[in-house]
UniProtKB/TrEMBL annotation, chain A:
Membrane-spanning ranges: 22-55, 67-84, 96-116, 136-154
Protein name per its UniProtKB record: Cobalt ABC transporter permease
Alphabetical keyword list: Cell membrane, Membrane, Transmembrane, Transmembrane helix
Membrane topology: Multi-pass membrane protein
Cellular compartment(s): Membrane
InterPro entries for this protein: ABC/ECF_trnsptr_transmembrane (IPR003339), ECF_transporter_component (IPR051611)
Pfam family for this entry, one: CbiQ
Secreted among keywords: no
Organism ancestry: Bacteria, Bacillati, Actinomycetota, Actinomycetes, Micrococcales
Natural source organism: Promicromonospora soli
This protein's GO CC annotations: plasma membrane
Highest rank taxon of the organism: Bacteria
TrEMBL record, chain B:
SMART domains: AAA
Keywords: ATP-binding, Nucleotide-binding, Transport
Entry's family note: Belongs to the ABC transporter superfamily.
Keyword Magnesium assigned: no
Ranges where the ABC transporter domain occurs: 4-228
One cellular component term from this protein's GO annotations in UniProt: ATP-binding cassette (ABC) transporter complex
Protein's recorded name: Cobalt ABC transporter ATP-binding protein
UniProt KW Iron keyword: no
A GO term, aspect molecular function: ATPase-coupled transmembrane transporter activity
C-alpha cells in the first residue's frame, strides 16, 4: 500500500509540493463533508476520476491504487452494508477509497525529498512547541521507508520458525522479530548519523 | 592532508575493552583492516567515522577531532556498512541518493545533476525510480556506495562492504571502492584477496593493533596465527 514516486512532467508533477498538498487536503476535506447519499458518491468518484485524468497520473495508476486498497475498501463496505444500508455504504466506502487515492496522488507525483522539505516548512510553527520540524519530517519519511524492511524481517522470522518446525506461536514470533527490528533501528541510526543527520 | 592518527586510544563498551591502547599513524590512500571476528576491527572503523567515542587517547581523522569537529567529519567522511538494507533511508533509488545531499547548501539543479551522475557511474540510472527495497543485495550495496560517493568524501570507511554479496557483486563493489583515487579508503574486510589490493594493511587482534605494513606481510602474519 506504500505509494512510490513516479517521475513525470505533467501538471501534478509541476505543481509546487506545498500548493499540491494544500489542494489535495482541501479536496479530501470537501469529500469528507459531503453527505452519505448516492449523488455524493457520484461526485466523489467524479472528482477522483478528474484528478487522475490529468496527464502525469493516469487511469491505470488509479486502478493500481484501488487494487492496493481493496481489503480496506472491502471491510469498510461490508461493515457499512450491515449497519447502515446500501446508500450510506456506497457513499462512505467511496469516500474512503477516494481519500486514499487522492493522498496517493501526492506521493505519486512528488519526490520524497521534496515532500520532506514541504513537511518541514509546514511544521515550522511546531518550533513554538519546542519540536524540531526536521526531525518530525524525517521520522515520517523513515516510517514509510521502514515498512517494507519490517515486512521482510517478519517474513524471515516466520520462515525460520517453519524451518525449525515451529508452529504459529505469537510469542515465538514476537521476540526474534522485536530483536531484529531493534537491531535494524540501531544500524539505521548509525547510517543516518554517517549521512550527516544529527 | 594528514590521514589517520591514533595515540593511546582505548574504547570501552559496557564492561568490555573493545580497543586497548591503540597507537597508529596511517597516511596510505588505501588501508585494509583485517583480523578475526570480535577482534575490534569494526569498532576501529566506527571510531574513525565518529560513531564511537574513544574512552582514552586522542583520535585525528583527516586532521579532525571526531568529537569536537563532528559536523565537519560527517561532511568529509562517508561510511559504508555490511548490511545494505540498514543504509536505505528513502523509498526510491534516486531519492535515497539525493538524501545524502540534503544538508548541502548547493542549488537543487546542481544536486540533481550530481545524483544523476552518481547513478550513472554505479550503473543504477535505469533503476532510479525503482523501490530501493526491491533491489537485489548487490544493487542495494551499490546504492549505498552511490549515496556515499555522491557527497564527494575525502575518506571512505567501508566496514565489510562485500560480506553479504556473491562473488560477482563483491568484485563490482570492490572495484568501485578501489578504483576511485579521489578519496582515501579504510576497508575492514575478511576477504584477504581484497585486502591485498590495498596499499597498507592493519592487523587487529584481541583489541589491539599488532601489525601495520605491506598487505602480503600482514596477511602472512594473520594466517600464521590462525589455528587451522
Amino acid at each position: 500500500m506504500v505509494t512510490l514516486y513516479r517521475p513525470g512532467d505533467g501538471p501534478w508533477h509541476r505543481l509546487r509540493p506545498g500548493r499540491k498538498t494544500a489542494l489535495l487536503l482541501l479536496l479530501v476535506l470537501g469529500i469528507c463533508l459531503l453527505p452519505a447519499t448516492w449523488w455524493a458518491a457520484g461526485v466523489m468518484a467524479g472528482v477522483c476520476l478528474a484528478c487522475y485524468a490529468i496527464p502525469g497520473a493516469g487511469m491505470r495508476e488509479l486502478g493500481r491504487q484501488l487494487v492496493a486498497t481493496r481489503w480496506m475498501v472491502g471491510v469498510t463496505l461490508i461493515g457499512q452494508l450491515i449497519f447502515l444500508g446500501p446508500e450510506s455504504a456506497a457513499a462512505n466506502t467511496t469516500r474512503v477509497a477516494v481519500a486514499c487515492a487522492l493522498a496517493a496522488l501526492l506521493a505519486l507525483t512528488t519526490p520524497a525529498t521534496e515532500l520532506l522539505e514541504t513537511f518541514e516548512r509546514a511544521m515550522g510553527p511546531l518550533t513554538w512547541l519546542r519540536l524540531d520540524p526536521r526531525r518530525v519530517a524525517l521520522t515520517l519519511a523513515l516510517t514509510l521507508s521502514t515498512l517494507p524492511v519490517l515486512a521482510n524481517l517478519a517474513r524471515d522470522v516466520r520462515e525460520a520458525q517453519r524451518a525449525r518446525g515451529g508452529g504459529r506461536s505469537l510469542r515465538h514470533f514476537a521476540m526474534p522479530f522485536l530483536v531484529m527490528a531493534l537491531k535494524h533501528a540501531d544500524e539505521l541510526g548509525d547510517a543516518l548519523t554517517a549521512r550527516g543527520v544529527r | 592532508m594528514s590521514g589517520i592518527a591514533l595515540q593511546g586510544v582505548s574504547v570501552r563498551l559496557g564492561d568490555t575493552d573493545v580497543l586497548r591502547d591503540v597507537t597508529l599513524s596511517l597516511d596510505a590512500r588505501t588501508i585494509a583492516v583485517v583480523g578475526e571476528n570480535g577482534s575490534g576491527k569494526s569498532t576501529l572503523a566506527r571510531l574513525l567515522s565518529g560513531l564511537v567515542v574513544a574512552s582514552d587517547g586522542t583520535v585525528r581523522v583527516l586532521g579532525l577531532d571526531p568529537v569536537r569537529q563532528a559536523a565537519e567529519l560527517r561532511r568529509r567522511v562517508a561510511v559504508i556498512f555490511s548490511n545494505p538494507d540498514a543504509q536505505i533511508v528513502m523509498p526510491t533509488v534516486a531519492e535515497d541518493v539525493a538524501f545524502s545531499l540534503r544538508t548541502e547548501k548547493s542549488p537543487r539543479s546542481e544536486k540533481n545533476e550530481r545524483v544523476i551522475a552518481a547513478l550513472d557511474r554505479f550503473g543504477l540510472a535505469d533503476l532510479a525510480a525503482r523501490s530501493s527495497h526491491d533491489l537485489s543485495g548487490g544493487q542495494k550495496q551499490l546504492l549505498a556506495l552511490c549515496g556515499a560517493f555522491v557527497r564527494r568524501p575525502d575518506l571512505v570507511v567501508a566496514d565489510e562492504p562485500t560480506a553479504y554479496l556473491d562473488a560477482r557483486n563483491a568484485r563490482r563493489v570492490a572495484d568501485h571502492l578501489l578504483a576511485d583515487t579521489s578519496h582515501r579508503l579504510v576497508l575492514v574486510t575478511h576477504d584477504l584477496e581484497l585486502a591485498q589490493r590495498c596499499e597498507t594493511a592493519v592487523l587487529v587482534q584481541d583489541g589491539t593493533v599488532t601489525e601495520v605494513g605491506a598487505p602480503e606481510q600482514v596477511i602472512a602474519t594473520y594466517e600464521a596465527g590462525i589455528p587451522w
